Amino acid sequence: DTGVSQDPRHKITKRGQNVTFRCDPISEHNRLYWYRQTLGQGPEFLTYFQNEAQLEKSRLLSDRFSAERPKGSFSTLEIQRTEQGDSAMYLCASRLSGSGNTIYFGEGSWLTVV
Amino acid sequence: DQQVKQNSPSLSVQEGRISILNCDYTNSMFDYFLWYKKYPAEGPTFLISISSIKDKNEDGRFTVFLNKSAKHLSLHIVPSQPGDSAVYFCAASLSVRGNEKLTFGTGTRLTIIP
Fold first, then answer.
1. Residues A1-12: what's their mean pLDDT?
2. For A46-87, what is each residue's pLDDT tens digit?
3. CB A6 within 8 A of CB A25
């Protein structure tokens, strides 16, 4: 039974570059979530998908951020023209509709923008 | 506007004693609450949850208590073990169709002293 998988686990990039993170949810989980966590804070909701449809986006998700979930399986989160303020851990989570409100997180992708 | 608050940034407890972590919330519409545990550089791990129709839920060494009138919940860990040293986040959600967001507190760092 594999959990939520995220790749890469760590990414260091120069300001202005684009980065992309991938998330593979738990098999058969149709809901997929992206959260962001900065030091000293709890995770903050960014967006979620039900199957391939992106149903909600936080105002934290600026125009430089885009998330996709083609075919309703894995998801990608792309950040364009990265800024130092984008440095954070990006967390992916998933759950199965109708199985309760608990979501299960992956190990996260650390982004450092220098 | 911090709707979920964990006012103690850190807590130290002797091994074998009880650890009590507290969480307060301001939105009386929240109806589902969760506790997650997080080790450094890893994603949050689900521990235990409680619905607002209950005031207590137990799972092994972990018990969550909910006081709706005070908008307060607590996590009790007994007996505390060294492996419990981690950051603990409480989270709340609103079970309204279309709302999928978990709102997290800022976390409490628990240190178990051998």
1. 91
2. 999 999 999 989 988 889 999 999 988 999 999 999 999 999
3. no
Q: How far is Cα of residue B55 from the mean position of the Cα atoms in its chain? A: 14
The answer to whether A113 touches A84, Cβ cutoff 8 Å, is yes
A window 12-31, beta carbon within 8 A of B: 31
Nearest to A108 among B4, B34, B43 (CB): B43
Dihedral of alpha carbons B50, B53, B56, B57, sign: negative
Tell whether the model's pLDDT for residue A1 goes beyond 60.
no
Chain B residues 45-104 with CB within 8 Å of chain A: 45-46, 49, 89, 91, 93, 95, 98, 100-104
Kindly report the average pLDDT of chain A as a whole number. 93
For residue B3, is pLDDT > 70?
yes
CA B68 to chain centre: 15
Question: Where in B27-85 does DSSP place strands (E)?
Answer: 32-38, 45-51, 56-59, 62-67, 72-77
Q: Between residues B11 and A100, which one has the greater pLDDT? A: B11
**pLDDT at res. B98:** 65
Alpha-carbon span B34 to B51, nearest angstrom: 9
Bin A98: left if φ > 0, else alpha if -120 < ψ < 50, else beta.
Answer: left
pLDDT, tens digit (0-9, with 9 covering 90-100), for B53-100: 999 999 999 999 999 999 999 999 999 999 999 999 999 998 776 677
Nearest to B15 by CA among B50, B61, B48, B58: B61
